[in-house]
Specification:
This protein is α+β, with helices and mostly antiparallel strands. It has helices at residues 283-324, 371-381, 414-418, 428-447, 499-515, 531-540, 558-571, 582-608, 633-637, 645-658, and strands spanning 2-8, 17-24, 40-43, 50-52, 55-59, 68-70, 75-79, 92-96, 100-104, 112-118, 131-137, 141-148, 173-174, 185-191, 197-204, 217-221, 225-229, 241-248, 254-260, 270-271, 273-278, 334-341, 345-351, 357-363, 392-398, 401-407, 451-454, 463-465, 471-473, 480-483. It is built from 10 helices and 30 strands. The chain starts with a strand and ends with a helix. The chain crosses the membrane at residues 291-314.
């Protein structure tokens, strides 16, 4: 059951329904066969039948077949049969003043084509201003269009005809195949939208064949649907007729309509006009699609924004750990400046809540050092303390963050003060003091506790200088713990190292201090690239003065230079057993410092001519040596005052003799 409803959209509800044609559409497919559909032709507001366009329209006031019914209440009939020049079907109309409907009993389910004809006529002027809504209902309500007849031409004689205007039937395309033994056809191709429904109306009127024999032929749509066309099925040869077809276009974008003869040698087939109309999709459906698209885009944008916020939150949390990730009282640390990089990670300058400065080393992924090195640094620095070793202030090990906090060492690395920067040059005395301090720190590591520590990464970049130019040994990430008088225990990393390997590395540092150049410089000639080999070669050839930093010229006495080179040479012995301990190295450097001080005193006494007494400044003392290596004040006093330079020289020589190691 299908309903055709009329609803008022303003105060006056009037419809000028003249003809209602309900035509089930034929949907084409590759396997479909054509069957003549049921048709309803209704002459509204009439009690008689009329013929128009080869079709008979039954008056809706005639009682009979129950396949068509309508609402009679609230309706009015207009009949202009005597005065109107319009065709008979336009001379009657039914006016609806309230919601009403026509009902059609359908025998098949599918698409249906509905054609409505309207004519306001000339007797009722208010009909031309009527507004109303027409809807077709089949299971759900689908409004067709809101009609307004405000703009119309009152010319019934030239109104839209049921079939086509006369000029369409004055020409035709025909098939002539009398001399051809093959089945032939004529094809029209139209560019259409892919996968859209199209309404096709073919107009026929045989203007050539006057014979009584029927000129039957085939009509094809897209090559896969065929309809047998016989003019005698449509009231004879001299009567125009049309055929309606609905087709769903394929993906080719073309719609083909063809004519073909039914047998060879037969002149048959003609076509006068062809209409192709595209079915418009329901606008509400398109709107829903747009709503879905907009909603999807909005949801995607929301997901992207939330994802971005999540990433920013993670980044903020990671950044927060630099500032606040340390345990109390370090959570208020403020990172001020990136001051360096190491194998473990970046090093920052920070300030504690008490305004004290610290250095913060933060581990990073892919640094080459990981949890084992991080734990080793904490393990070593938490059990030692020495003036010449950096001290650990705190650490953080939380949520994959590895942070170490050290005392801040103001002046940076020893290497930066020797070469590769614009920092002021260190004097020879300062360089000796730095070497002695570093040697004392390493000696403490080797012998200062029950578990000795092998540093295994001694180099000029791991010796820092504080604001007073005091040396501090740093970076214990790959150090090794050993039980005294035993082999190194197995908790170390894979890098090998012994006490004597630290001594060798320190010997290279001594040469860097003296020569102010890198241990390995590939920009130099081959024989000079390795500093240790080049320095030992120069010593053997007696040209050590050629490798000394030019900024030290005039500051080093030849005998002190020779003694310093001897210490470096001992540290660089190929056989580790022949190398001295860090205790001996430390003592030798202190001895060189005493020689340097004696030289300064000699120069001072010679310059002033002597005043009857000699005052020797307090000498530097090793942390681990007895007073046998220290010149006591009473030892100096016994050399008393004398005005002769001979007595002064004798005093100096005896002091030096007393400092010779046992």
């Amino acid at each position: 059951m299908a309903n055709l409803c009329f609803q008022d959209s303003v105060s006056l509800f009037v419809t000028m329904v003249v003809i209602i044609l309900l035509l089930p559409h034929v949907t084409l497919s590759a396997t479909s066969t054509y069957s003549r559909p049921d048709k309803f032709y209704v002459n509204c507001g009439s009690d008689s039948n009329v013929t128009y366009g080869n079709q008979t329209f039954v008056g809706d006031m005639i009682s009979g077949d129950n396949s068509v019914s309508f609402t009679r209440e609230g309706t009015e009939v207009i009949n202009q049969s005597g005065s109107s020049p319009a065709p008979e079907i336009y001379r009657t109309a039914r006016i609806f003043r309230r919601p009403s409907h026509y009902k059609f009993q359908l025998n098949s389910v599918g698409l249906h084509f509905l054609r409505l004809h309207f004519s306001a006529g000339s007797s009722r002027t208010e009909l031309s201003t009527a507004r109303f809504t027409v809807s077709a209902t089949y299971g759900s309500n689908h409004p067709l269009r809101s009609f307004s007849l405000q703009n119309f031409n009152e010319t019934p004689r030239s109104g839209s005809e049921l079939i086509a205007p006369d000029f369409v039937y004055r020409t035709a395309k025909t098939i002539v195949s009398s001399d051809c033994i093959f089945m032939i056809n004529v094809t029209w191709s139209f560019k259409v939208k892919s996968n859209y429904r199209h309404f096709i109306r073919a107009h026929f009127f045989d203007i050539k064949n006057n014979e009584s024999q029927p000129s039957d032929f085939y009509l094809y749509v897209n090559g896969h649907w065929r309809l047998h066309v016989n003019p005698f099925d449509h009231h004879g040869l001299v009567t125009p007729f049309y055929i309606d077809v609905i087709n769903v276009s394929d993906g080719s974008g073309l719609l083909n309509v063809s004519l073909g003869n039914t047998e060879p040698y037969k002149d048959a087939g003609f076509l006068n006009g062809l209409e192709v109309m595209e079915f418009l999709e329901d606008s509400s459906k398109g709107s829903s699609y747009r709503v879905y698209i907009i909603a999807g885009c909005a949801a995607l944008a929301l997901v992207l924004v939330l994802g971005l916020l999540f990433l920013l939150c993670l980044k903020w949390r990671r950044s927060k750990k630099i500032y606040l990730g340390l345990k109390i009282p370090f959570r208020d640390i403020l990172i001020q400046l990136l001051i360096g990089k190491s194998g473990f990670g970046d090093v920052y300058k920070g300030i504690l809540p008490d305004e004290s400065k610290v250095a913060i080393k933060r581990g990073k992924t892919g640094s080459g050092q990981g949890m084992l090195e991080f734990q080793r640094e904490i393990q070593v620095l938490s059990r030692i303390w020495h003036r010449h070793l950096v001290s650990l202030t705190g650490y953080c090990d939380e949520n994959s963050e590895m942070i170490l906090v050290y005392e801040f060492i103001e002046k940076g690395t020893l290497q930066e003060h020797l070469y590769g920067s614009d920092l002021p040059s260190l004097s020879w005395k300062q360089r000796l003091e730095i070497c002695i301090g570093a040697a004392r720190g390493l000696h403490y590591l080797h012998s200062g506790s029950e578990e000795a520590i092998i540093h295994r990464d001694v180099k000029s970049t791991n010796i820092l200088l504080d604001e007073n130019t005091v040396a501090k040994v740093v970076d214990f990430g790959i150090s090794k713990l050993v039980v005294r008088n035993q082999e190194p225990i197995s908790i170390s990393t894979n890098i090998k190292g012994t006490y004597k390997s630290d001594v060798y590395s320190f010997g290279v540092v001594l040469l860097e201090v003296l020569c102010a150049r890198p241990a390995l410089d590939r920009h130099l000639p081959a024989e000079q690239q390795n500093l240790a080999d080049w320095a030992m070669s120069c010593k053997s050839n007696g040209v050590v003065d050629k490798i000394v930093d030019q900024r030290l010229v005039g500051q080093i006495e030849p005998k002190i230079l020779r003694k310093f080179m001897e210490v470096a040479e001992k540290c660089l012995k190929d056989n580790g057993d022949e190398r001295p301990s860090m205790a001996n190295v430390s003592w030798e450097l202190e001895y060189i410092m005493r020689l340097q001080m004696m030289t300064i005193l000699e120069d001072s006494v010679a310059c002033c001519g002597g005043d009857g007494s000699l005052v020797i400044p307090r000498l530097m003392v090793s942390d681990s040596f007895s007073c046998n290596s220290i010149v006591q004040e009473d030892q100096v006093k016994k050399y008393g005052s004398t005005n002769s330079s001979h007595s002064q020289t004798r005093v100096l020589s005896q002091v030096i003799e007393g400092m010779v190691p046992p």
